[in-house]
UniProtKB/TrEMBL annotation:
Family named by the database record: Belongs to the IAA-amido conjugating enzyme family.
Domain of life: Eukaryota
Protein name per Swiss-Prot or TrEMBL: Jasmonic acid-amido synthetase JAR1-like
Keyword Ligase (UniProt): yes
InterPro entries: GH3, GH3_C, GH3_M
Domain GH3 middle: 370-441
Sequence ranges assigned to domain GH3 C-terminal in this UniProt record: 456-571
One example GO MF annotation: acid-amino acid ligase activity
Amino acid sequence: MKHQIFPSYCSCFNIFRVSVTMIEKMELLDVDKLIEEFESLTKDAGNVQRETLKKILEENGCAEYLQNLGLNGRTDPESFKACVPLVTHNDLQPYIQRIVDGSSSPILTGKPITTISLSSGTTQGKPKFVPFNDELMETTLQIYRTSYAFRTREFPIENGKALQLIYSSKQSNTKGGLIVGTATTNVFRNSQFKNTMKVMQSQCCSPDEVIFGPDFHQSLYCHLLCGLIFREEIQFISSTFSHSIVHAFRTFEQVWEELCADIREGVLTSRITFPSVRSAMAKLLKPNPELADLIHKKCLGLNNWYGLIPELFPNVKYIYGIMTGSMEPYLKKLRHYARDLPLISADYGSSEGWIGANVNPNVPPELATYVVLPNIGYFEFIPLKENVEEAKPVGLTEVKVGEEYEVIITSFAGLYRYRLGDVVKVTGFHNLSPELKFICRRNLMLTINIDKNTEKDLQLAVEAASKLNTEEKLEVLDFSSHVDLSTNPGHYVIFWEISGEVRDEVLEECCNCLDCSFVDAGYVSSRKINAIGPLELRVVQRGTFQKILDHYVGLGAALSQFKTPRCVGSTNNEVFQILCNNVVKSYFSTAF
Ligand code: AMP
């Protein structure tokens, strides 16, 4: 049996090696071939998974972590599951810390880890260290190429440029001499990234000095300026998480006249202070009054910036970035800017490793799913229907359509049976590999007693409440929440940053609507008997969420990976203080 499986799997791996080396010689990627490779991998998903686990365990069998678990060279899934425990980041922290401190012995991987990724930390409050290595880089590029192939088949682009709103945080060194950066930084700084972007016709219109600039406000301004300079050539607009695209065009609304002035005079605003960024921009910026006039006219002609993107960039074919999960609340604004341009959600992954590619790009982001690539890691899924404590993880090909699971990753970068904390729903299969819909982070967010509300429930409540009165032009720019146990009984607090003047009566109504929109039986019954107090809506000043973003960037997170924390616990004191210090009005629900 093994003999029959191995050659077919090996050939899959070889195909990938060939396409990687070809990248160096080829002008463009061979889309048909990439799709063919993906089809053969997913048709054989079960065997590919077994062989991937074998490869991971063979490469890393000498690592101390695996040695201590008594696998004794066995690489089959059954022995693996019997010997290796499910872990969280906390369990691995002491091992990772030793790597960070410079220990060169094989701790989690056979080959020493030389680079560490700093996860965005915005979901949990503080950044975590996770190992990064060449294999992780290669799987990143594999997933980029795969979704590119499917995207290009549906939405072909011409040779041109991309306005990529990407930012690299600083790479620094640990005291043990390892390189540390956010995962996106480690990817953007890798030489293979640029080559891959080239063969994917996705070269960033901005120079490296802008992407790697030390101040993201300045980089953002320059990205916009580069986009305008190359406006006719821009084929698509992208970012890692789509929040960055919305953030960029909101900024555009503030700085467009300054951008026009720079283009008119051919001189960069004095606000950009870093010499490397200034000199890189000086090479691109020439006085161009016609272009400045054109942009000025277009901006003045827009109604509340509706359709801004296609007006500015006439040849853009689509907008691309992660748009699901905590990014869904930004879709409305993105559509406003994009008018009828397709919005395509980018792939599903994390600093710990990639999971699935979006191979159905013509599906709207609300319905986007991700097909797991069976050779980029070994995947297990904890069924969430059953009693959590007893639920046994199942393999990639054993998941059932319609069920929800927590994702467990075993990666090429030293994570074994690692609980990612994400909840996904299986919506179907692509050949034998499941299609996953991202649901939410597993951590319960809002809970006081028997109530359970997740990030998704909060998002739906905010959506419902913000739709209440469109005549008032109420726009919720961003939101977060908190469980306030300092009152008796405790109650939910929702923070809103809104634009426009909204009457108190409307906000009172919104507050009641929020309270009624948490339909979880535990919440409703607790509210009815006042075991949970009235929900409180606190409106914060304009710019509060920008302060939160700045706070995280100050901690070393990159704008590229930023996700607004949707629930702020009292342990996340600094962010909680930012929110509380900026409250301008507060309302209590009278709904129950
Ligand atoms: P980071 O910690 O910055 O590496 O972020 C990884 C997390 O972002 C994942 O664990 C998910 O919770 C979320 N994420 C990544 N990709 C997607 C996606 N396509 N849709 C929804 N959420 C995603």
